[in-house]
Amino acid sequence: MGRLVDLKKAYADKKTSPRETLLDLFKRIEKLNPKLNAYLEIFKEEALKASDNPRAGSLSGIPIGIKDMISIEGHELNASSKILKGYRAPRSATVTEKLANAGAIFTGRLNCDEFAMGSSNENTSFGPVLNPNDLSRTAGGSSGGSAAAVRADLCVGSLGTDTGGSIRLPAAFCGTVGLKPTYGRVSRSGVIAFASSLDQVGPLADDAQDTAEIFQVIAGRDERDATTLPVATGDYVGAAKIGNLKGLKVGLPKEYFVKGGLSPDIEKLTQQSIEALKKEGAVFSEVSLPHTDYGIAVYYLVATAEAASNLSRYDGIRYGKRAKDFKSMKDLIVKTRSEGFGAEVKRRIMLGTFALSSGYFDAYYSKAQFVRSKIQQEFLDAFQKVDVIFAPVSPTTAFKIGEKSSDPLQMYLCDIYTVCVNLAGLPALSFPIGDDAKGLPVGAQFIGAPFAEETLFSALAGFEKAAPYKRRSLEC
Amino acid sequence: MLEEILKKYEVVIGLEVHAQLKTKTKLMSAAANVYGAPPNSAVSTPCTGMPGALPTLNKEAVAVAVQMGLALDCEIQPVSIFSRKHYFYPDLPKGYQISQYDRPYALKGGVSFFYNNERKTINLTRIHLEEDAGKNLHFDDRGISLVDLNRSSVPLIEIVSEPEIRSPLEAAAYLKALRLVLRYLDICDGNLEEGNFRCDANVSLRIRGASAFGTRVELKNINSFRNLEKAINYEIERQHQVIEAQEKVIQETRLWDADKNKSISMRSKEEAADYRYFPEPDLLPLRISSAYIETQKRKLPELPMARMARFVEDYARSPYDAEVLCASVDLANYFEVVAKSAGDFTMASNFIQTNVLAKIANVETDFKSFYPDAKALGDLLLKVIDKTLSLNMAKEVFEEMLSSKKLASQIIQEKNLFQVTDEGALKVALQKVLDENPGQLTDYRSGKDKLFGFFMGQAQKALQGKASPAVLKGLLERMLKGE
Amino acid sequence: MDSSFSASKIAKLAYLELSETETKDFQKQFAAILSYVDKLKDIPMTSEEAKKMGAFHITTSFYELMGLDAALTLREEGCDAPATRLNLTNDEALKNAPQTGGIPGELLFEVPSIIER
Hints:
By secondary structure, chain B is an alpha+beta fold. Chain B has helices at residues 2-8, 59-71, 168-185, 225-244, 290-299, 304-314, 319-325, 329-342, 345-359, 374-385, 391-404, 408-415, 423-436, 438-445, 451-462, 469-482, and strands spanning 9-20, 43-44, 75-76, 79-80, 83-86, 96-99, 106-107, 110-115, 118-131, 135-139, 144-148, 155-161, 197-207, 217-222, 253-257, 262-265, 278-279, 286-287. Chain B folds into three domains: 2-296, no CATH class; 302-415, no CATH class; 423-480, Arc Repressor Mutant, subunit A, CATH 1.10.10.410. Helices cover 41% and strands 20% of the residues of chain B. In chain B, a hairpin with a 2-residue loop joins strand 8 and strand 9 (118-131). Chain B is elongated. Chain B starts with a helix and ends with a helix. Chain C folds into two domains: 7-73, no CATH class; 75-112, no CATH class. By secondary structure, chain C is mainly α. The interface between A and C is large, with 79 and 63 residues.
């Protein structure tokens, strides 16, 4: 049983109170966070106060951590960047507004890659997030803090964002469940934009039911976000309770399972999972996604173009940290941005600016969008045949801190199994399937048709019954 | 000088007009769209570019933008797209403006107006929707600028004409006609000085008879009709000088300086701006159905040219009169009510133009509180038609109505202002005048015809101005002949 | 695909100032990234497709997929519109302003003079 559902029951049975739970939690945070660096800021006072009389709701008294990309009214919000140091959000994001209305208690701001750009949570001005399973390794990114905090029991659930795998990858590296919703299922209003057509906010938690509980609250159309759709939300909590795999049609994309694409341990565990699913009645077939290979190229043009555009507003004029020495108004903006942004952010702004620049737009941005539409169509065609697609999340388990940070292109290639899902706008649920020989968690994902999160939750529930993942106790 | 230039060269002008829409809220945020509010008080997270804020498209702004497109006979596009236009400036909080680039909501169309007694149409290229930017207030002596974002994201429509205008006067006529349509639709106040209506002019010269266009220069900061004319004329002379000196006219943007009566180049040493346009990912393409277009069509009021034509047709007005009387919807309404009550269209038109308009400072606003209102004025004119009053007396009553706010009939009663038409009484008065002025009578008889007016004037004076001029004149003529 | 990428030129457009080392590093890294991205030229695209697909939009594709009416996404002007909750008072708008040396209680954002001397 996941901790969230457990806690709800414990509250209902009066076995514990929100205040006790939070006191314990903050003790753990104070002990472990200095090592893990998952939290940038802890809302101890506010959370304890709220725990005395939490609002009624489906998440009443449940401690949730929030990625430092998502606004909470009155709280500092940095996007893990120097350029936003001191900025306090005047309004909550729709998702935090909804969580608060459901009684959730925010434990603090979670560390992430700067402006959500990265796969290892090493691109941060405030120190990397370490993997609770092995402190010499990364927690994955960009939502490293969100995954590490859940895994190390520094919160019961968290919110992250996923633009190219940023929920699913850290979830896989740390050993938690993470959902990237269908694009347009959850509101982005109040969430710092990285790539507007790819970003989604999603929950991380222990298992299908816990994740569904959080998702149930945040899903839904928002008039403040024109990219959300007027599609009725489903019964995700209900779906996560039903674990019936019989007859579930599962697709295996042949392009995802090429020889040598996965480390041997991951290959083995992935095959074992497939067998476990088959045993419960899932029916596997091969699907083809021929443009998979172009996914990273497309992603790094579209995402960086949109990012370069979205980050134009950080100029030191209305908020954030303004440069001190400047010769003119223009110089103020240039110095603020140059001093405030980290190297990876600058790199992506440059790449994106280039992709949009005069003379290159057709060749880069237009071409990328064109290929993107093909990638989406291939997935939609596959879902004519299957209910879900089963795929790996990462070619390796968590790598060592500093191992890939000298070669940006190598870092980008980590996203090979995750980006196409964002490009197609589909939902995907990442979950642990075992540990490798070094004891590092291995993840896999169910990818679904648009707005089919219920199918994903119920498939995961089935898998959890068939092959439950045992989390070992952590040394840290 | 200009005349000489224009004998050899033809000036080619295209105008780009930005009109602010008077919607309740802004284009991309729900902040209030108000003029003159305290700085940074009509703002929201989207229009101040706060992290995480998203744009939401104003339904009403789309409706009035489409109405304007229909009023100008444009082809409203079934699908149009918003694009981001990037540049860094303090009054542009997101670092980009949400505008429309290659897929505007309206194409073609035209603006019609009377010019040199002819009906002329200048074709349009396009109209698109975009956000306005904030305002920078400069305090160079303190070395700072202050930024007010109240205006950020106020809805604008940009109306681009084809380069078919051929003189500054024609440009002014085009601009006035365009402004009138905006005012008739009541979607923009059309005020150049206040800045809710802005005009940039693209000007180039070419040898008369040539088919290719010369290099065009963009003129900005034109804040009045006078400056429009001055700026274009200045540019004609400037470009002429350049051409005559065997140099090339540089394609650039120039700012008009109304104090110094010259334009200044805005050219910097850097390359032309690369705005890195791309489709706005936070908004859906704008879909306009034919049903929607029909709905907006039904909301259109009678447009200026149509109303003027109707005044010519139904009220037998000259095109000039019709244009004057259609200067605002309120004025045109006023005229029609007066004309219909009085029944004499010419009298109504003349009286309004001569007397009423002299008292109206702003035809857009002042009619709402003006007295005599149309009905009251109509009643006054009826008194002239039924010969109770002469026209001159009516003018006096009108003046009295302005200050006392009383009805014409009341004033006539109270001041006993009935016109004297009785020949007997008038004859007596006239005889007295002739008897008391024998010298002038002799002079008149010996050819000084002008003294007729003198006798008329004296008789009117004696009768406190109440004599019917027509009757008086006829009597005087007979008396001067008969005797 | 012409990949004549100039790190210094692009930095200027993006209002970034790079050190010499940064410029050199970026120039090198971009050569690698752009050469990787070059594989997209394997996929042919006509100019009509370019025009159409430049505006590819996931949300639009989903509206079509689910048969929904996109006209519902325009914001009504009523005071109860959710977007109204994002309206700010002057105080809230200025609270995060990083201006220095300004007049206390200033209602506007302060920047150095835009007119370059």
